[in-house]
Design goal:
Layout lengths: L1 H5 L12 H10 L3 H13 L3 H12 L2 E2 H8 L3 H13 L3 E6 L2 E6 L2 H15 L1
Antiparallel strand pairs: 1-3, 2-3
Length: 122
């Protein structure tokens, strides 16, 4: 019987509207396209390998072969994931002689990683 009660746990027991609150939240809601892009961004964070790469780059900028060594993976696998991360504007690269060095695209990415780690460690 307790299981049946849990089905309605997230429902209002009485039907009522808080018009001012609803209007305020509705006005602050980002456009549909922005929310779609945000959901796509978080999908990129949904892969453990990409999270490992981001964390590695959070610690230091690196070339593909160094990232592969740290993560004990092939350079090909790392390159594939770096392409996804670059398309999502989470990493950037620069040429240093014959090497391409990868780093986090900006400070926002470091903040997202830091906040995510803090959240799961609570």
């Amino acid at each position: 019987m307790a299981e049946k009660d849990n089905k309605h746990e997230h429902c209002c027991l009485e039907q009522h509207n808080h018009k001012e609150l609803i209007e305020s939240v509705s006005m602050d809601m980002p456009e549909e396209e922005v929310l779609y892009d945000l959901a796509e961004l978080f999908k990129v964070f949904g892969d453990t390998t990409r999270i490992k790469i981001l964390y590695t780059l959070f610690e230091s900028e690196m070339c593909v072969c160094d990232i592969a060594e740290v993560l004990n993976m092939t350079q090909s696998a790392i390159s594939h994931q770096l392409k996804v991360l670059k398309q999502a504007k989470l990493v950037k690269n620069r040429r240093d002689g014959k090497q391409i060095i990868y780093s986090l695209d900006d400070g926002h990415i470091a903040n997202i990683i830091t906040m995510g780690i803090e959240h799961i460690m609570e």
